[in-house]
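Example record

Each entry pairs one chain with its bound ligand, molybdenum atom.
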Amino acid sequence: MADDPVDTEGPHADVNAKLVRTKEQWAKDGRALTGTSSDPKRDRRPPGQRITQDFPVLDLGIQPNLSQREWALSVAGQVAHPLKWDWEAFMAQPQVSYLNDIHCVTTWSRYDNTWVGVPMRTLLAEVKPLPSAKYLMVKSYDGYATNIPLADVDRDDVFIAHSWQGKPLDRDHGGPVRLVVPHLYFWKSAKWIRHITFMDKDQPGYWEARGYHMRGNPWDEERYG
Ligand SMILES: Nc1nc2c(c(=O)[nH]1)N[C@H]1C(S)=C(S)[C@@H](COP(=O)(O)O)O[C@H]1N2
Ligand SMILES: [Mo]
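Structure tokens for the complex follow.
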């Protein structure tokens, strides 16, 4: 398709196969599990996490090179009003600043990230999920996908980001546009988002099909399923 900057058949040839195998093995081994659980209200740092100052890049090794003009987000499935936002429509939505911590399943956490983006609740108000909608599948331009319960995005702290630390989001961190779901492990925060499908039944995304947890709450160490 002429409007497809990258292949839509899912990640294949360019995927960093070694990295994928390593992470699958970690899931089998239960790597980094401490066997403890904690309360996010009491413990800022989830069990088994260590703080890093830098911002590591983690993906499948395919980093789509998308201009703002080439990017668009479509939403379909169990919703009353499917939508498609191109860059202009996206930027016409309410713009909100956020401050949060992020927690990667590979054990790094990064505190005090500042972001600007569109609240997920703005998108939900537009599309109006049907009563049958219980889960989302979020799909990206690199072929990545991740599933998230609807209840985990129907929150004030979940948003669709275009800027980080006062600058447009870099390509390697998901620019021009990524999802941010700070209360779940960071693999749920899809970079280069392209499509969201609302579903009645849960289905695994890319990592969830390879041993990662279907929800991914860091304070309960939901690293692997
Ligand atoms: N589209 C896409 N989004 C993705 C990924 C990916 O491979 N492709 N990797 C996930 C994983 S495993 C992590 S830890 C975070 C990393 O985000 P960062 O590279 O900005 O640190 O992105 C998540 N979102
Ligand atoms: Mo990750």
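Residues 58, 104-106, 186-187 surround molybdenum atom (ligand 2) (CB under 6 Å).
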